Amino acid sequence: MSVELCLLFFTVALLYASAGFGGGSSYLALMTLWNVDFQLMKSTALVCNVVVVAGSVYHFYRAGQLPMKRAFQLSLISIPFAFFGSYLPLKQHTFFLLLGIALTIAAVLMCYKLFIEKQYTPNPDAQMTYKYGIIGGAIGLLSGMTGIGGGIYLSPVLRLGRFDTAKKIAGICALFILVNSIGGLLGQAAKGEIIFDLHFAGPLLLSVILGGQIGARLSAAVLKPRMVEGATALLILYAGVRMLIQG
């Protein structure tokens, strides 16, 4: 196991956990750059997601920043779709093509939020929750197919819709990622394609557990989230475009 990869996983978990994300998209991007087997990377990324966002869900809930009813309404449709998406048989070429497109779109959405959106004023509307639940289902399907939790797609959508405050959106996304990652793992288990190599994944899991616990306790002011999101967007964009070119 590469020490550099462990340090990168630790850093990703630390930064993402502070914003309610699991880091699945960046784990996949890093493992792609390390030429890891695509089935192994899917299972590893989802397990890393679960252990990171489980801590984030706990801390956001304790801080009163996780509206459970709205979070479950958003996640209800996504769970079976994440299972179904993960259960679908995908060839390696198709997987990397989908992942490349998904990461590129995610990077563009992150850049929009960073550089174009100037002012954010939440406008919570209970009636819109069910409509966003349908969008959550589509994100769950894509998440299951590409081996991530989907928070990186859901967060910009909720912010564009002024769904709630930034911190509550982060809490909602943490729960969304947790249940979708579990749904994705169950889908892989149902078709007998979970590949968990303890020699490979063990050090990475220890890295993200440590990084996630530290990140979940740090304030956004300490980590300067705009710089973090900018660096993350560049990494994801690079990995996504690289996959598309190689594909």
From TrEMBL:
Primary location group: membrane
Subcellular location, record wording: Cell membrane; Membrane
InterPro entries: TM_pro_TauE-like, TSUP/Inactive_protease-like
Lipid biosynthesis as UniProt keyword: no
Record-annotated membrane-spanning stretches: 43-61, 71-88, 94-112, 132-154, 169-187, 194-215, 227-245
Source organism superkingdom: Bacteria
Family: Belongs to the 4-toluene sulfonate uptake permease (TSUP) (TC 2.A.102) family.
Protein known as: Probable membrane transporter protein
Organism of this sequence: Chitinophaga rhizophila
Biological classification of the source: Bacteria, Pseudomonadati, Bacteroidota, Chitinophagia, Chitinophagales
